[in-house]
Design brief:
single chain; mainly alpha; 2 strands; about 70% helix; globular
């Protein structure tokens, strides 16, 4: 693939890193229970952490609809700018009062609520089908890569006196987010044909690869009834929701577990909390490359590939979590099993994460809004449930229950997806029959038009 598309992916990679950084920063502060500036109970911490997702889920579907109508560039960029600004304001909000901080977190969630649907709408127009796993995976591991960088950085900054200690985390991330927005505004475009500097060869390659799967027009009516009653869509929703529960359980609660059960100090906690996400980054990179190779060489169908990698991600994670639940206070064993559990979850990027674009690229943004909205309700439910279970009594038996619940959910959602999931384009994706749009004009950027060539011999009827 051409350099400009690769650069486009790189920008989204970094923004997802920033997304994760902002989410992780607050927890580093909250987790410092005994010596922290704020006297918040475990339940209060769960509410504050979950407040972000109250805002996040509200704009998922509207964000997807907006991105499919006007393009994903500005919804994504402006959403992240809002998040960055309120990251800068977070220390002031926290010191003003708990309720003010909760409002600040909700607004950050509203800003980020449009980002994943907008990203999917952008990727549907930019990523060739046989490169979706590795390029899409590369984009989405930005969140985990951001965690790898941010957790130890937070541990260090919180323990230092730089800009007041913990507030420096928010100041740095907010500033980086605003700088990122400036670059995003100038270098990212809604589709290949809108890019003023794209090479003709690359433009032709992308358009011919995607072909009739993607409408050449931004405004495509959403077939709501067909989409919401489609079993492959429901299978994505179930799998993504299960993934959300497991991921947010570990993402938000791991520092607390390392501190209260395994008794690591703040700085060590930061480094150890980052290790599992480094494993996830590496596993995601490997699994997405393997997935695309299996598809390109026709070793397995796209459906089988997606199901294989979800099984690796969720059944593997469930197995290691069960082991961690019974590892007791053995530091090495517990950290190893949790690292493996989070690491294998990287295979999710080679399965369900790109599945929306597989089955209906014209509606990928809206579908991501629907499924990601449900999945991120787990960002509210999982921390709250953990807080209720622990209830200021961080015992081994309580943590065992938290891990076993996550393992059970991983297993259940995998079974559902194995039965009903699909990696094939659905008949309701296309707005018209191939005889009406069987040819595509490719802009050669030299004032001429390339020959019109049929892209697909046939397509499913509406």
């Amino acid at each position: 693939m051409g350099n400009k598309t690769y650069a486009y992916c790189l920008w989204i990679f970094w923004i997802h890193g920033f997304l994760c950084n902002a989410c992780q920063s607050l927890h580093g502060n909250c987790s410092n229970e005994s010596s922290g500036e704020f006297d918040w109970s475990t339940k209060d911490q769960g509410i504050i952490l979950g407040a972000f997702f109250w805002g996040y889920v509200i704009l998922q579907v509207p964000g997807g609809m907006l991105a499919e109508r006007i393009g994903g560039k500005w919804p994504f960029g402006i959403g992240m700018l809002v998040t960055a600004i309120f990251s800068l304001l977070t220390p002031l909000a926290a010191r003003t009062g708990k309720n003010v901080l909760i409002i600040c977190r909700i607004i950050q969630g509203l800003g980020e609520g449009v980002t994943n649907p907008a990203a999917h709408a952008l990727m549907a127009r930019w990523l060739p089908p046989l490169e979706r796993s590795r390029l899409g995976g590369f984009i989405y591991i930005g969140a985990q890569a951001g965690t790898v960088i941010t957790m130890p950085l937070c541990g260090y900054l919180i323990s230092s006196n730089f800009l007041g200690g913990w507030p420096s985390v928010f100041y740095i991330m907010g500033t980086l987010g605003i700088i990122w927005f400036i670059f995003w505004s100038f270098f990212v475009f809604d589709s290949p044909k809108d890019h003023p500097r794209i090479e003709a060869k690359e433009l032709s390659y992308i358009q011919h690869s995607i072909g009739l799967q993607m409408s050449q027009h931004k405004k495509v009516p959403t077939p709501w009834r067909k989409m919401l009653t489609s079993m492959p869509v429901i299978a994505i929703l179930i799998a993504q929701t299960g993934h959300g529960w497991g991921l947010y359980t570990l993402l938000t609660e791991l520092p607390t577990y390392l501190k209260t059960i395994l008794h690591f100090d703040m700085k060590s906690n930061g480094y150890l909390s980052a290790v599992p996400y480094l494993a996830m980054v590496l596993f995601s990179l490997a699994s997405t490359v393997i997935a695309d190779n299996l598809r390109e060489k026709n070793v397995f169908s796209n459906t089988i590939v997606r199901k294989i990698f979800l099984s690796i991600a969720h059944l593997g994670a469930a197995s290691f979590l069960i082991g961690a639940a019974y590892s007791g206070c053995d530091r090495l064993l517990a950290v190893t099993l949790i690292t493996l559990s989070i690491g294998v979850m990287g295979a999710f990027n080679a399965s369900v994460q790109m599945n929306h674009i597989d089955i209906a690229s014209n509606h990928a943004g809206v579908m991501m809004g629907v499924t990601n909205g449900f999945a991120n309700l787990m960002g509210i439910a999982a921390p709250y449930a953990a807080g209720v279970i622990i209830s200021d009594n961080s015992s081994l038996s309580n943590w065992r229950l938290i891990f076993l619940i996550a393992a059970a959910i991983f297993t259940a959602d995998t079974i559902f997806y194995l039965i009903f999931g699909s990696g094939e384009e659905q008949v309701w994706n296309r707005e018209s029959k191939p005889k009406e749009i069987s040819n595509i004009r490719v802009d050669s950027r030299n004032g001429d038009l390339d020959d019109r060539q049929p892209l697909l011999a046939e397509a499913n009827s509406d």
